[in-house]
Amino acid sequence: MELPLDHFRLIGVSPSATSEEILRAFQLRLDKTPDEGFTYEVLTQRSELLRLTADLLTDPESRREYENLLLNGASGLEFSSNREVAGLILLWESGSSKEAFKITRKALQPPQTPALGSSREADLTLLAALTSRDSAIQEQQLRSYSNAADFLHEGIQLLQRMGKLGEIRKDLEEDLASLLPYRILDLLSRDLNDQESHKKGLSMLENLIVKRGGLEGNNKSEYVNYLNQQEFEAFFQQIKPYLTVQEQIDLFLGLQKRGSLEAGFLAFLSLTAIGFSRRKPEKLFEARRILKKLNLSGLDSMPLVGCLDLLLADIEKASARFSSSSDEKLRDWLNNYPGNNLEAICIFCKNWLENDVLVGYRDIDLKEVDLDSWFEDREIQEFIETLEKKSNKTTIKSNFQNQQIKKESSTKSTDDFGSTLDNIDESRLPLPGGIKQVYEKLDIQENKFNEGIFKSKPIEFYKYLIEKIAELKFGFGEFLKDKEITSRSPYLIYLYAFLILFTFGIGIGFLRNNFKNSIQDDAVEDKPFIALDKNQKVSDNDITQEIKKNPSNKLNSIPDKSTAINSSKFKALTTASPSLEELRNLINIWLLKKSNYLAGKSEINLSTIVSNGLIDRTIEERQNDIKKGIYKQINSQILKIDLKSQTSSRIVLLVELNYLERILKDSGEFVNETSLNPLKVKYILGFSNKSWKLVDFVSGL
């Protein structure tokens, strides 16, 4: 057997070494015998080879002849069959682990396989294990982690086949497991043209994460001892920039289906990144759906959803999301921002995209975010125009079908119509002319459609009248103006008139039975809080002075428990098109209960008419006051209420209030007072689960 080894390397000296240096190296090699477990026979042969080499190199004539052979191109040394294992050991000791492993592995394969149980088999198997491990170490030093893993894997397979050295094999397996993150990094960091290596790295990465129990590391696996959670997170941050945005979306969505919440959040970020960078607004809808379903503890999702609403040109929703944030510092920043609210939200969104969303992708390199170019992009404008046309057609078709079906299916049709309008609201994008024009156009379309509902044929209108009894007068006027009816027989007119009066009677009875309590409450709450002559007018200054003189006169608060409104009377407002009086009553109840709760007099049990988010914000405000040792006396009265816009799923009210807020310490000591006359507030109501609820409000418009 010829080995890639010369006498100088075999003994471990340079070709210019003197005889004294050669003898010294020879003695050191004899004294430093490998103690890994080789047989005595092979170690004796090793010593004999070292002695022969030392004799050759210290004899001037023999050395001169050997050097001439090297100069003439001679390479390698020939070893007899009984000394080739010793020669392989010397090759390994000279630093050529990879060459030694390859030759040793070949010597263990048929037809050269040594006899079972022989010393040759034992020595070659041990040498294969040692050389595979040292070869892996050399490759790691060169950052060729995939090659290092290949050496370890081949060594493990060889030991498994030979059925020997179980302890050493276990050490190799541990080395291979600890090498996995570096192998993945090696494969993924290669050029994208090497598709095979990249796919292999992606597959290994996903398998590693799944075995660990998601990005959170919920499972105990063989990799826990080599890669704890902190080390894994650092490794993953290193890996992420080598993945394209689509690769990350596929990876995170797959992990989310397996139950990883962290993967769901990263999928949301990746979808937002591809949606914004590639001008794909439909990806933003998908990202928003994922975020709304996530339940990550400690995550304040409101400003993030608000950013998506802004990118989809829904400014009102974006503002409401930011106002609903649980981050007190963020709300303070927004409230104290010197510019308008929209400008502040745009700045927050821009920074969020630049610092958290559009980073860590192999194929996205946006150093600066330009929101103007997003809103001006023609493809986005065409997308929303198409979506709006489709939504409007669906809405009109749904309304026409609603008026043709039977009475018992009318409630379900109303819900479907509300769902259609929800889809329009969720998909707003800018049209030429800017964001303002979008909202003006949508509001006009909604108003025209609402007006069109009542311009139907008489019999269809009567069916609808049971649900819309408040519109009877208007409908009757439309009936009288119908030329087709008036041109027919007067008996038919009398018949229709009788039907109108009969339906009107049913409607009055229905209103009397179902809205009696709310009408009585409205009558009590609408009483003036200052006793005046009938002809005397009340000015804003008079109201303010009266409040200051008699702060105990709560405009919309409850003086004691005996007169408190029972929460069980707060019935859900289920009317599809509530009257302004019903809406006034709902706002009054909210002001009453909120005032008493912030004064520490009662609980705020309004889940039937107020959203949980708004209730939670009020509870948080009261808890903060308790920590500060204060409570609030709030006196308010509705002066004016206007309906700004109304669809089947959303109502916007503009309300003017006389407002006085006094802050007192728990001891009763006066702290501060705020008086606003009038205070303008925008209230937003949403229709969900077949009832209207107060969702949010914006003060100081």
List unreliable stretches of 5+ residues.
395-489, 514-568
Strand residue content: 5-15%
**Oligomeric assembly:** single chain
Percent of residues in helices: 55-70%
Radius of gyration over all CA atoms, rounded: 42 Å
Number of domains: 4
- Order of strands across the biggest sheet? 3-4-5-6
Coarse shape: elongated
- Overall average residue pLDDT: 77
Question: CA-to-CA gap between the ends?
Answer: 94 Å
Number of strands: 6
Major β-sheet profile: 4 strands, antiparallel
Instruction: Return the structural class.
Output: alpha+beta
Counted by DSSP, the helix tally is 30
Account of the protein in words:
- With 701 residues, this protein is an alpha+beta fold.
- It has four domains: 187 residues, no CATH class; 134 residues, no CATH class; 125 residues, no CATH class; 175 residues, Roll (Nuclear Transport Factor 2, Chain: A).
- Helix 8 packs antiparallel against helix 9, helix 9 crosses helix 10 and helix 13 runs antiparallel to helix 14.
List the helices and strands and how they pair.
Elements lengths: L1 E2 L3 H5 L7 H13 L8 H19 L1 H12 L5 E2 L5 H10 L3 H11 L11 H23 L3 H18 L3 H23 L6 H18 L16 H11 L5 H13 L3 H17 L3 H13 L8 H10 L3 H9 L4 H9 L4 H17 L13 H6 L1 H25 L7 H17 L8 H19 L4 H8 L6 H9 L2 H4 L3 H25 L1 H10 L14 H10 L30 H19 L13 H17 L1 E17 L3 E16 L4 E19 L2 E9 L2
Antiparallel strand pairs: 1-2, 3-4, 4-5, 5-6
Helix pairs in contact: 2-3, 3-5, 5-6, 5-7, 6-7, 7-8, 8-9, 9-10, 12-13, 13-14, 15-16, 15-18, 20-21, 27-29
